Amino acid sequence: MFTIVVMSVVMFATSLFAREDKALSEYRHALMETLGYQMKSMGHILKNRLPLTQHIESHARMISATAALIPAAWEKETRTGRTDSKPLIWKQWDQFKSAAADTRKESRKLAEVAAGGSTKDIFSQMKNLGITCGACHNTFRKSESEKSKK
After folding, report:
1. CB under 8 Å to 71, separation ≥6 — which residues?
2. I want to staple 100 with a disulfide (CB 3.0 to 4.6 A). Which of 44, 46, 53, 70 is the partner?
3. 10 Å Cβ neighbour count for 116?
4. Which CATH architecture has domain 2-147?
């Protein structure tokens, strides 16, 4: 009887941890999608000269606020669920945190520029942020070929 109880507790706990890890992976994915959608929204407004320029600053502030969440969201190592994260994140944690800090810095600059800069300045800072994001992705996110090996 004792063995059955212990096995049941272990199975239940394992199930809870797996569910938490999957939820954490989904949360991370949602954070990254949020960043992407906010950048895309700004791009649509600016490229198409939509009469929504008053939204630019809000999108930029959302990007900055979301970027600030990145390090804490990746503190726990997990590869369960939908994830494009490479294990390298946790092997090179300090470098990952530094890359996240660079993204945060560039996103703050974007929010500052969006508050009163010209369209040219906003595009320029969006490009700078994109370069910073890309550098992190190139190092710490699975490539398309790696993703297809799931």
Report:
1. 96, 97, 100, 101
2. 70
3. 9
4. Up-down Bundle (1.20)
Please tell me the distance from the alpha carbon of residue 103 to that of residue 98, in angstroms, as a whole number: 9
Encode pLDDT of 42-71 as tens digits. 999 999 999 999 999 999 999 999 999 999
pTM for this prediction? 0.84
Map residue 85 onto helix, strand or coil.
Answer: strand
**H-helix or E-strand containing 19?**
helix 2-47
Question: Is the torsion defined by CA of 124, 125, 130, 132 positive or negative?
Answer: positive
49 torsion bin: left (phi>0), alpha (psi -120 to 50), beta (else): left
| Residue 141 Cα distances to 45, 60, 147, angstroms | 28, 23, 9
What are the tokens at 47? 């490229």
